[in-house]
Design goal:
Blueprint lengths: L1 E5 L5 H9 L4 E5 L2 H9 L5 E8 L3 E2 L1 H9 L2 E10 L3 E4 L10 E4 L1 H5 L2 H6 L4 E4 L3 H11 L4 E5 L1 H7 L2 E5 L8 E9 L11 E8 L5 H11 L3 E9 L7 E8 L4 H10 L3 E10 L10
Parallel strand pairs: 1-2, 1-3, 7-8, 7-9
Antiparallel strand pairs: 3-4, 3-11, 5-11, 6-9, 6-10, 12-14, 12-15, 13-14
């Protein structure tokens, strides 16, 4: 199976994709929009995208892309995010005066960077891409913050491991297929839905009350602006289901109260992986 990811080989998305489909052929893309383009144009079989980090919050662009395209979420996973300071072989921590990584990764390692004031941090488009860059440039004054897999993939060396501020750092990933090819797991117990309501008092409450009446457990709600319609919003919700039938019931219950309802996917909820000490 060919799976598109945003980022370079060795990224956390790469690791998550192999965790979901062990023998997948990874197709790296520079931009998230390119990931979805590859999927809908049938250049790949599926895509793996990060949707939420336990510390940094939601990846908002990916909600918009899920709504815009005829795709479905078929599975989710949780990946423990462990950041490492990576450099060229033979480099010492005292040699490094600048560090590159994705802005979210840099933000999650503030304590380590504060303890090493000599290291000036620079935002880069991808964690694994920052390792790829330092190896290509052979820059022994530069370091990167990325995964262990990225260090191994590019032949770099880990100088310090586990440098994130908070060890309870997890990212939730979605496995996405074209809607025409998506197969729902019969053991599914979770649904993701996008909907919009009329701009009048109580309309959102009415919609949420319908979900509550079904006995679903609302685990997440996110609002996003509707492009071209100022002050109108699309709401994204995740709900735990008592059974797979609850998903269809939720869609039917919302429809009379909403201008738009779209099921983004019904899938088996991922369990939290064991923390790595």
């Amino acid at each position: 199976m060919r799976i598109a990811i945003q980022g370079e080989p060795g990224s956390f998305s790469h690791e998550a994709a192999l965790g979901l489909i062990a023998d997948a052929v990874i197709v790296p893309c520079a931009l998230s929009a390119e990931v979805f383009k590859e999927l809908v144009e049938e250049s790949v079989d599926a895509a793996v995208i990060p949707i939420e980090n336990s510390l940094a919050g939601s990846v908002l662009e990916h909600f918009d892309l899920l709504l815009q395209h005829d795709v479905k979420v078929v599975s989710e996973s949780l990946l423990r995010i462990r950041h490492n300071l990576i450099a060229l072989p033979g480099t010492t921590i005292h040699d490094i005066d600048r560090v590159f990584s994705h802005p979210v990764a840099l933000a999650q390692c503030r304590r380590f960077l504060a303890q090493h004031p000599k290291m000036e941090s620079y935002a880069y488009y991808d964690t694994a891409g920052s390792v790829k860059q330092l190896v290509e440039l052979r820059d022994k004054r530069a370091g990167a913050i990325a995964s262990e897999a990225a260090a191994h993939y590019y032949g770099a060396e880990i100088l310090c491991s586990g440098i994130e501020d908070n060890p309870e750092n997890y990212t939730r990933f979605f496995l996405v297929r074209r809607a025409s090819e998506a197969v729902t797991n019969p053991d599914s117990n979770k649904i993701s839905i996008a909907f919009s309501v009329e701009n009048r008092p109580g309309s959102l409450v009415e919609a949420l009350n319908e979900l509550s009446a079904l006995g679903t457990n609302l685990t997440k709600i996110e609002s996003r602006p509707v492009h071209g319609k100022p002050w109108e919003y699309v709401f994204y919700v995740d709900c735990q289901l008592a059974s797979i039938k609850g998903g269809a019931q939720a869609i039917r219950a919302l429809s009379p109260h909403c201008a738009m309802v779209k099921e983004l996917g019904t899938y088996r909820e991922a369990t939290k992986p064991q923390s790595i000490d």
